[in-house]
Amino acid sequence: MMKFKVSKDIIENLIKFGALICLVLIMVQFHSVRTKSFRYHYVEGHPWTYEGLQAPFDFPIYKSNAAIEAERAEMLRNYMPCFRLEEVSIETILDSLQKQYSLSIQERNQCGQVFLRIFSENILSGQDMQWLADSTYSNIKIIDDHNVAQSKTLLECFTPLTIYSKITAISDSVTLELIDRFSIYKYIVPNLTYDESMSEKLRNDILSKIAISEGTIQYGEMIIDRGEIVTKEKYQILQSLERQYQEIYSSKQSWLSLLGDVMLELFFVLLLILYLVRFRPGYYKGMKNVMFFFILVGLMVSLSAGAIKLGEMLNLPMCVYLVPLAWVPILIRVFFDARTSLYVHWITLVLVALMLDDPFTYVLIQVAVGMVVVTSLKDITVRSQLATTALYVFLTYSFIYTALTLSITGDITKLDWIVYVLFAINCVLLLLAYGLIFLCEKSFKMLSSMTLVELSNVNSELLMKLAQEAPGTFQHSLQVANLASEAAKKIGADSLLVRTGAMYHDIGKMVNPQNFTENQQGGVNPLSSMPIMEAVAIILAHVTDGESIAKKNHLPQKLIDFIVTHHGTSKARYFYNTYVNTHPNEKVDESLFMYKGLKPFTREQGILMMADAVEARSRSLNEYSEKSIDEMVEQMVNAQINDGQLNQTPLTFKDIEDIKAVLKEKLRNIYHHRITYPELNFQEKEK
Q: What are the chain's domains?
C-alpha cells in the first residue's frame, strides 16, 4: 500500500490559506453592520459633507416615527373597544335556585323580578373593567344580538360586585331579606363579552386612514448641497431616501453586495500576503508571524464593527474612534520593522473603512496617526516611549479633526467636544499596548526591543552572576557585543538582538570558569594537566551548559539560539590539532572534537560567530599592527566559510566583506598604538 508523505511546508501553507479564508469570512460577517446601499452619513444640525445630492428616482417623504405616533394617538382617541351583549337565561338561574332552596311560587316570582332588574344593566367582568380603566378608555361600544351598536360610558357599566351593591342599596327590606336568604350575589354573571375580532377590525380601520408620507421628491430634484446644514426637514427627506434605498436593494442585490464584500476583502488580504512573500519572506515563513498578523487585523476589524454598532445605538457615528487602531503599527513596530507596520496598518485601515458610510475622514485621520506612530517609535528602547506616542496620537487626532471641520464648515461652533473625549479615551486605551506586548511575547514566542534592552542590562541578575564568577568571560562578552552590534548596523541587521545574544553566548563557562584562559589571569591552566579527551569535553560542554542555564533562567528562545550556534558544529581546533600531532598513526574520530550545537541560521547568529572568533583570536596575537589584525580577521572568517559554518545564514558575500571591514576597524581601534609619556629629567625632579 502506497504511503503519501506531506511536507511541513505544504501543511503550513494549507494552514495559512485556511486562516486567510477564516479572516475574510469574519470580516464579511462584520461588514453587515453597515447600510449596504446608502453610503452617506448625516446628522441633524450638522453640515452635509458630500457633494450636492440629487434625487436618483421619485420617492415619498415619509413621516417621522414621532409624527406617525402622534397621529395614531389622535385618531385612537375616538376608538372604543367592542363588547357583545349576551342574553342571560333567568329561568335557568331560577331553576338552580329552585333545586337548592325549594322556592315557593311567590319566592320564585320575587327572585325573578330581582334578576330582571340586575341583568337589565350592562355588566362587565371585574378583569375587563380593570383593563378598560388601565387603558384609559372612557367609552365602549355594545353590540346586541341584532348587530345594533350603541356607545356607553364606563360609568354606565357595572361589575357583578357593583351591580349587587346598587341593587341592595335601592331595595326594600323584604327584597333585601330575599336577596340575602338565597345568596343572589352568587348568580350574578357578566352579560358583556369582549369581541376581539370586531375591536381589532375597528382599530385597523381607523389606523388605515393614517398616511405614512407627506409629499413626494421627484427625480433630479436637489435634496441638499455640500456645506448645507441638515435641518429637520432635510433630515426627514434623507431618511426617506435611505429607507427607499433599503426597500429597493435589500432583497434584489443582497447576494451581489456580499460578493462585492468578499472580493474587496480578499483582494486586500492577498495584498498583505503578497507583501510578505515579496519583501519579507522571513516573516512569511514563520507560521506564528502570519497568524499574528491575521489575528491582529481580525481583532481590529471586529472591535471596529462593534464600535460602529454601538454608535448606531447611541446615535454617535464617531464612536468608531474609540477603537485604538494605532495598536496595529505599535505592536508590529515593536516586533518587526517600520515598513511592515505601516503596510499592515493601512491594510487594516482600508478593511475598517469599508464598513463606514463616510470613510474619507476616517482614512485621512488614521493614515496620519499611523505615520506618527511609526515615526515616534523609531527606536523602541524604553517603555515610556509608548506613553509619549499616545500623547502624539491624541494631538494628531485632535489636529486633523479640527482642521477638517474648519475646512469644510468654516464655523468653529461645529466642533464637537464629544469627539475630543473619544480621542482621549482612544489614547488611554493605547497604553494597554504594554500588556499586549507582553501577551504577544508569551503567546507567539516573539521578542520585543524593550525586552532586549532589559535583558542586555549588565545589572541583570544573570549577567551580574557571570561578571562575578567568570569576569574574563564577561569582559570577552562585552567586547564581542560591541563588535557584533557595529557589524550588524553596517549590513542592516538587528544590532540590539545580536548585542543581547552576545552578552549571553558564553554563560555556559560559569560551570567551570577556571578552565577557560580569559578567567585564569596568567595562572596555571588546569586543562594542561588533564588528558586531552577530558579537557576537550570540558571545553565543548560550555555550549550545552549554556543552553541549560539559559532555559533554567527562562531566557527567550532567540537568545538560546545564539548560545547554541555561536560555535556551530566546528572543531575545538587547538585540542584537535594537538591530538593529531601526538597520535600521528591513529585514525581520529573528529566528532569527539566538534561542538554539539547548530550552525547559525540567521544573519545575527552568523555575525556573532565571526565576532566571537576574531575577538578571542585577537588576544593571542604577538603584535598588534594593522597588517596582523587584518590577516587574522581574514584567516578566521575564511576558515568558518570554508568549514561551511555560515552556509545556512542569509548572509551575502558583500555582507561578509562589510562585516570583515567593521571587525578590522574596531579591533584596530581597540589595540591602537599609544604614545609613551616622557619622564621628568633629574634637574626638574630636584626643583
A: 8-36+253-444 (no CATH), 75-207 (no CATH), 460-670 (1.10.3210)
